[in-house]
Amino acid sequence: MKFKYTDYHVHTNWSSDISEDGPNFNDYIKIAEAEEINICFLEHYELYKIERDKKDPFYDGRIDDYLEEFDELKGNYKFILSGLELEYYRDREIELLEFLDDYEKEIDFIGGTLHEWIYHYPITSRAKLLELLEKVQMKKVIDDYFEISRMMIESRIFKNICHIDTIFRYINENDIIPLDDCDVSEDRVLDLGRLCIKNKIRIEYNLSGVKFPINRSFPSKDIAEQLKSERAKFFVGSDSHQIEYFKETVPKVKEAYKFLGLDI
Ligand SMILES: [Zn+2]
Ligand SMILES: [Zn+2]
């Protein structure tokens, strides 16, 4: 890679939660080059949605178009990586492994992720989470998140895991306040992190929390520090969905590398 630091988590209009006229490869490339940072395009790749939603950018095998478009740029720019934020489904592990068999060699970086285990109710959408909480008790939603995350890690399908405590994006004291019977302790996050260490999986230090009332990284700085002392391996991601946010977060990505001792 050309530069010292890498932002492993930026989304373009190849991601389903970004509109077609949203940021594209070149929009990021221009800024990354000026700010001297490598970037990895970590687009959402959700088997369930790709099969059903014609509007999903990867519908109907379009992943090959994505890789083709990327390859055309790769020759000119030595600071870009292709990647996917690949959704985990506990009942589709075989298909995920088959997918990786087919594509792992062609894609620079793949991060496992958990946003949605009851279809159509991603916990990373505030509106959808509120709808989910009308049907399922908050305690169960939180417990299920940690249980399925544990399954994702122990499956060892992924070498990298994104934002291990993203369940707290909206459920926290500054936003949707956890009910009394909910276990929202950081120890649970620490346990997931330790499980990553045990399974030799890299953990994302995701900086996107500044966009939400929680206003902290995922995991928190304290947890990252503890995991670092236990020899966890990290990668850093801004989780950019917009160019302005990407640009203003570059210095924070570089600081995170220093904090995590990754800048040697
Ligand atoms: Zn995500
Ligand atoms: Zn993301």
How is the CATH topology named?
TIM Barrel
What is the end-to-end distance?
15 Å
**How much of the polypeptide forms β-strand, as a percent range?**
5-15%
Q: How is the largest sheet built, in terms of strand order?
A: 1-2-3-4
CATH 2nd-level architecture: Alpha-Beta Barrel
Bound molecules: zinc ion
Give the helices and strands, then pairings.
Elements: E1 6-10, H1 25-35, E2 38-45, H2 47-52, H3 63-74, E3 80-87, H4 93-103, E4 109-113, H5 126-135, H6 138-155, E5 160-161, H7 186-198, E6 202-206, H8 221-229, E7 234-237, H9 243-259
Parallel strand pairs: 1-2, 2-3, 3-4, 5-6, 6-7
Helix pairs in contact: 1-9, 6-7
One zinc ion binds at residues 85, 113, 115, 162-163.
Brief rundown of the structure:
By secondary structure, the protein is an alpha/beta fold. The protein has a single domain (about 5-260), classed as TIM Barrel (Alpha-Beta Barrel), CATH 3.20.20.
Describe this structure as you would to a colleague.
- The protein has a single domain (6-259), classed as TIM Barrel (Alpha-Beta Barrel).
- Helix content is 41%, strand content 14%.
- The chain contains 9 helices and 7 strands.
- It has a 4-stranded parallel sheet with strand order 1-2-3-4. Strands 5-6-7 form a 3-stranded parallel sheet, with helices on one face.
- Helix 1 crosses helix 9 and helix 6 (138-155) runs parallel beside helix 7 (186-198).
- The mean pLDDT is 97.
- Bound molecules: zinc ion (ZN) (2 copies).
- One zinc ion is lined by residues 9, 11, 42, 85, 239.
